[in-house]
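Quick illustration, no need to memorize.
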Amino acid sequence: MTATEIHLVVQRTIAATPEAVFDAWTTPAVLRRWFAAGPDWDTPVADVDLRPGGAFRIAMRNPQTGDVHAATGEYVEIDRPRRLVHAGFAHDGIRDLHVEGWQGTLANLAGRAFATDAS
């Protein structure tokens, strides 16, 4: 099985427009607000080269341990706001490690990406 054949499908309904969700995935300042595996984690790095063949790098920090985990990949297809495709996983084991992290990350997207600083 090749990397392009190994997939992980996680679905979540987000109360936002497709444009806002797409921008949340592709705008560094917004990514730093929400892209993390846990609700109390922070995201010190979010680099985006938004073009087919361009790379992204997002570093998440666990405040309990100080450990930093980086997510990296390549944009394969970009069709705002309908489609944003990243390269596949190298093998099943790496994909399986992402399941729990993606659940937390998508919960953060739903709860933190569209929050405003004004109260």
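The radius of gyration is 14 Å.
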